[in-house]
Amino acid sequence: MASGALPPGFSRDGILNLDLCCYRRGFMLDGLSFMKGDEAIVVTKFGMNYREMPNMRDSSAARVKASIDKSLQNLGTDYVDVYLVHWPDRNTPFEETMSALNDIVREGKVRYVAASNYSATRLAEALAVSAREGLTRYVALQPQYNLVERSG
User: 113 near 105, Cβ under 8 Å?
Assistant: First the structure.
């Protein structure tokens, strides 16, 4: 992280998991930080509801770029280590989404990209586009699998 500062009361020992989302207020501090020693790995995602962009599953190029800039500002950092597309967007071609993700990786705003809540079929489609077009590819998947939802 740019500042390297920890919130008061947090330790630099072990692993720390922060989920800082404020969905009801129309903005997002969506960050997951894993701390070990003096190193932080910052993981965040986009695709939830913003008041100005109510389509929750919008992964258009404009949304990718606006969302990373907003996340970087909210998190107070120059880059994030992993940036996830929160939900698959059936209205935006993978070529557009993956190209925009490739741009923000090239710009140094993101180190790696990943997907969340993608089916195996949709993930395979996105990976095929990345391979065919020579674009950055998803390096991880965060499936919807928990105590309530078991079909992930």
Answer: yes
CA angle 116, 138, 15 (to 5 degrees): 65
Closest CA to 85 of 107, 62, 113: 113
On whether the pTM is more than 0.85, the answer is no
In this predicted structure, the answer to whether residue 97 has a pLDDT above a threshold of 50 is yes
Higher per-residue confidence, 114 vs 150 = 114
> pLDDT for 111-123, tens place per residue?
999 998 888 899 9
Kindly indicate the confidence band of residue 50, based on its pLDDT and cuts at 50, 70 and 90: low
Amino acid letter, 110: V
